[in-house]
Specification:
Aspartate Aminotransferase, domain 1, Aspartate Aminotransferase, domain 2, 2 domains, four-stranded mixed sheet, globular, binds pyridoxal-5'-phosphate
Length: about 425
Amino acid sequence: MDSINKLLDQDRQIIWHPYSAVNSDLPIFPVKSAQGVRIKLMDDRELIDGMSSWWSAIHGYNHPVMNRALNYQLESMAHVMFGGLTHQPAVDLACKLVEITPKSLQTVFFSDSGSVAVEVAMKMAIQYWYSRNKPNKQKMLSIRHGYHGDTFAAMSVSDPVNGMHSLFASSLAQQFFADAPDCKFHQDCTDHDLRSFLEQLEKYHHQIAAVILEPIVQGAGGMRFYSPTFLKRVRELCNQFNVLLILDEIATGFGRTGKLFACEHAKIEPDIMCLGKALTAGYMTLAATMTTTEIASSISNHEPGIFMHGPTFMANPLACTMGLASIDILLNSSWQNKIQQIENILKIRLKACLDFPQVKDVRVIGAIGVVELHHPVNLKTIQPQFVKEGVWLRPFNKLIYIMPPYIINKDELCYLINAIIKIISRMK
Ligand SMILES: *Cc1c(COP(=O)(O)O)cnc(C)c1O
């Protein structure tokens, strides 16, 4: 017990956690190990994981096939620089990504995190228009309630209120924002849903390099789901106004919404796509920005003749190996059935939450279940309650949500759902 308290003390004093303060009085739980859908704490309590470590651990933890692939790659090489050198894991993963993503996407730029993949996407769009003699197209158009990461450019296209843009005002690039659509996933989008988006395009398209948004599911900006018909219209309008479309599939990619990539719901293809999170199933930090042959050649064949980006750990071999292994595991499983089963259970069982006056909305798509409350939760009190129930969930603001590893079974999923129902029932 002493060693646990010492660890917690040191952690509290010197380490920043995500969106946290040092010396915070929020509870924090030390983990000993993780296996399958279970996270084991240092005090030996076991929690059923409902978060997939923020969308990433889709096959659960400590997966034997993933572990073997990692060890195998480690014996030949952990890392080499990617300037002037290449290797099999990078080439194999790039080929695989080109094969499984929408067919217009034919080239791959590897980076280390989702935020950087978004930065790279924005730079690609700007450099493309520069190469087409339209150097004034440097701005982005996004929709409110989005989330694209925490670095400056990624932050500049995330929701201005959630992202506290006012705090960073004079350091942050000014972008254009349209209202998010009100149409739910199963509804058709109306002219009303598109009005603000169309207005921004009409007014500013000469300055706009690209539209950037999360397809179908807006994740960390509010877990909102919108209609594929909106996305379809956005694609048409981007073509009409000579603006590129960047789809940020960092959260939605690799099956989470029931399709391999969420843009498939709308049967559209982006000009640039960002991948991250589940790309390596939570093993290594890796992201990718993909684009078309047309954009890639235009950038490459025009002064300065190169794309202006190149991270130190670009295409890290261990990370690429994990990407390949994860995609193989996913595509060799009956993932569509699995996600469908998770969706069915979430839809049937999570509905019970609607009986509580504290609950404003319950929504489910694929392996994502969201309970929206009327008021923000108190993380300090609710987090220990979930842990006491034996589940790992991490609510934010008014949202309690589940996005479990795809390997979760029915009993484990129902256990998670029951814990949510129990804890909401105790709320005042
Ligand atoms: C998490 C996320 C990001 C940022 O990824 P990081 O790896 O945290 O930098 C960007 N876009 C979306 C949609 C995300 O969910």
